[in-house]
Amino acid sequence: MDFIKEKISGIEISVNEKSKRIIDIKIKKESLDKLIFPFHKFDITALEYKPFTRFTLAKSLDELFSNKLRKLIHSVLTDRNTGCLLIVPELVNKKFNDVFLVKLATGLAHLIGIPNFDHMSSKYYARFFVKHEDKSDSYLRKAYTNMDLHTDGTYVNQKTDWILMTKIEEKNVKGGESVFLHLDDWEHCKELSNDPIGKQNFVWNSPKSKNVDYKIEHPVFFKDSEGRPQISYIDQFPEPQSMEQGNFLQKLSDALEESKNKITTPLPPGSTVFANNYFWLHGRKSFKENKNLSRELLRIRGSFFVN
Q1: Distance CA 117, CA 234 (A)
Q2: Which residues on adjacent β-strands are paired with residue 284?
Q3: 174: exposed, middle or buried (Cβ count in 10 Å: 0-12, 13-18, 19+)
Q4: For a pLDDT cut of 90, what percent of the chain falls above it?
Q5: E-strand stretches of 185-231
Q6: Taking Cα atoms as reference points, which of 300, 296, 299 lies closest to residue 131?
Q7: Cβ(269)–Cβ(278) below 8 Å
Q8: Bridge partners of 150?
Q9: How far is CA 65 from the centre of its chain?
């Protein structure tokens, strides 16, 4: 964890108070001000239509921080002992608004890899609301139901090494805290990752709102190059093909949700969580009921550069 000692002008690096595995990065106001000009060069439409413009944002972002930010983010995300960043702008206001936050998230993602095509939005990112009323077909927008621990990309045929989530805005919100669990802190990791059922291929499907018209097969647990367990799992999308698979999934779900090592924390508007998708699970607590509740989130998920 030598990156904790790294000194980069314009940002503050520290260990999160809830977990030594999460590294906090605070972007200072003077650095945000310096991003306004390079970010203004491209509007959102240009970023969506011309992929190379996204790398221009990433280059501007890295250059502002002495070409050290890219290395820092990659080091944290690929270190099994950490694997998660919480990036918080020192100030969020009309100047650093939703458009600015989309560009900031775009630059951060393109420092370390290639975003997946997000079928739900038909873009390289997705923006979506959680509100009081909901008629969707997944837990993603269910305000008054817990979103249980899971990883992303379980139902697509794209490699999903990492996930970036930015809270763009929230109004009239109580509850809805974010929940995280590192696989190595999970009490039942060894038992369930070594269960032969968890290594079987499961069928994974998705609801219509995801706009994915195929099913895929893969196990819940697999190993990295050093033989350590990794996970690809979400409770809503597997289609068990046997009694053994169904019971295994129930046991897995219960063991995750009952873990005493979950990290539960509120995240301020403007904040970005950047996490390794193979050994960090994430979820969300339910909200307190409010007819005027509104939270907007941005999601980018993708793969690391090959070299």
Answers
A1: 19
A2: 147, 178
A3: exposed
A4: 90
A5: 202-204, 216-218, 221-223, 229-231
A6: 296
A7: no
A8: 282
A9: 23
